[in-house]
Amino acid sequence: MPEFQPFLITHQPLDPAPLVAYAQAPTDGAVVTFTGVARNHVAGRPTASLSYEAYAEMAVPVLEQIAAEAAERWPIGRIAVHHRVGTLAIGETAVLVVVAAPHRQEAFQAAAYVMDRIKEIAPIWKQEHWADGAAEWRE
Amino acid sequence: MPEFQPFLITHQPLDPAPLVAYAQAPTDGAVVTFTGVARNHVAGRPTASLSYEAYAEMAVPVLEQIAAEAAERWPIGRIAVHHRVGTLAIGETAVLVVVAAPHRQEAFQAAAYVMDRIKEIAPIWKQEHWADGAAEWRE
Amino acid sequence: MITIQIRLFAAHRDIVGRPELTLAQPAGATLGEVWAHLVVEHPALARYTGRLLFAVNQQFADPTTVLHDGDEVAFIPPVSGGAAVL
Amino acid sequence: MITIQIRLFAAHRDIVGRPELTLAQPAGATLGEVWAHLVVEHPALARYTGRLLFAVNQQFADPTTVLHDGDEVAFIPPVSGGAAVL
To answer: What CATH number has the domain spanning D2-71?
Structure first.
């Protein structure tokens, strides 16, 4: 069985359980999990599916960098981030961010920060496949 | 199989998966899960275990009321809250709060609000069993 | 006279030694008066005065609430739900 | 002269029609100069000027960064990671 990777870009469906198990330490009373899910519409336009593409060799170090930034800002424990790539059906999970911390406020703040930064700098792109057959990169 | 209860006080171990499955709708791109975990120390004093007690007949309606408050404040989707009672070992989950929403900011804010309010008004009490054998209600 | 049922939890229950009490009170008695009565009988409860929440029939209420026959009264010590988290 | 490897993603790759390019450049060429060169060859890239991130060897870099032989260059169109969520 391969070692658990806290920062991962994968074609496989995402499951939060191993991330939570990894992040949670006996000193941490709070674990916040963010799940980003493929939606059935964007700005009112119906979507049929989404696909994600990553510059994986760079995305993983960027996720590690973002986690290090969060750990500098808040007294938190472990962080794990898994991002899916490939085609996702509506309702499938695109990203999981898990942050453990001794106290809940910091866990919430750090998890929100990590998601903000992923959307700012992580080299991961989303293409929306509209219900009418067209496709478009989200920029 | 009994119907899923979004607001529940239970002696059974908690599992976030059914709460996330319940909360997540196709219109909601964001799901935030808060997991409150029994820690191995409180203010530096080692704990051996924790026990929780609830006024269950009242706690469930209070959780529903808190969820309604959150839904008035933010444009969010479904909320689920499960709280465990009885004796918990260190590392076991005491509470799960799951909030789904179209956008992540509101999901984070509402989940943090729900936890704050649970700690303010939900009739649920925690007793710390110290490693030295003493026990104390947290107040 | 009215008869009320009192539910006791956590430290309150430890002090009183029972999870429930049945109490006869004069008609028109308020939640605050019942609490004061309990504190006289169990002085260790005094330190919760001003720090507790009140409920009647599983609804939050305040000390001036007038009780009725058959009401379920709860004196709710400071809560700490969800919290291994300070 | 130096030889660099260019990685292209998402809309950039669609415009250029390939995921990778190998490009010979004069010694001392900068990231910004290479981007300008690409835009000349693929004018549809022009709308990304000022909106993209640059990387060399999987590290963020800026347009003034001087390139070396064998560098892996990436022009990163606006990202949208994690996001069914606006």
So the answer is: 3.10.20.30
